[in-house]
Amino acid sequence: MNSSNNAKAYAKIVENGVQAVQEVNQLRSTGYVYENIFVLAHDGNRTERIADTADANEVGIKEEGMFDALANLFRSRGDELRAKITSFGFTKAEADFYEKELDLGKVLVIAKKAE
């Protein structure tokens, strides 16, 4: 289960930042816009570096909702990542799966459908 499609978002686990950049470029070439493409890694600094390189976004307050973002201040990084993932419409089980993959050093690329 490397990727998941649902009504809200597309997600794909990749091995590293290079593959994340390639995935972002692929998504952009198929019509996804910059504002709707996000990357997540377990290490917040790594997420920022990959997002900058890929010209993608980090998941922020707008996507999560203000309450969830404030709640993340009191959560571990794993809980924070699962909250970010479920904010895109993924189930708790999917979020658990993706977070475990991130824990192994992989990177998650998420693309929202245009609203």
Tally of separate helices: 6
By helix and strand content, what is the structural category? Answer: alpha+beta
Chain-averaged pLDDT: 79
Low-confidence stretches: 1-6, 69-75
Our estimate of the beta-strand percent is 15-25%
Q: Biggest sheet: strands side by side, in what order?
A: 1-2-4-3
How many β-strand runs? 4
Helical content (DSSP H or I, runs of 4+) = 40-55%
Radius of gyration: 13 Å
Order of helix and strand elements from N to C terminus? EEHEHHHHHE
Q: Name the shape in a single word.
A: globular
Tally of domains? 1
Strand count, sense and closure of the main sheet? 4 strands, antiparallel
**Termini separation:** 26 Å
Pfam families: YflT
Domain General stress protein 17M-like: 12-105
InterPro entries: GSP17M-like_dom
Protein name: General stress protein 17M-like domain-containing protein
Structure description:
It comes from Paenibacillus pini JCM 16418. Residues 12-105 form the General stress protein 17M-like domain. The chain has one domain. Helices cover 50% and strands 17% of the residues. The chain contains six helices and four strands, in the order E-E-H-E-H-H-H-H-H-E. The chain has helices spanning 17-29, 44-54, 61-64, 66-72, 77-86, 92-103, and strands at residues 3-5, 9-14, 37-40, 107-112. It has a four-stranded antiparallel β-sheet, sandwiched between helices. Helix 4 runs antiparallel to helix 5 and helix 5 (77-86) crosses helix 6. It starts with a strand and ends with a strand.
Summary of the model, kept short:
With 115 residues, this protein is of the alpha+beta class.
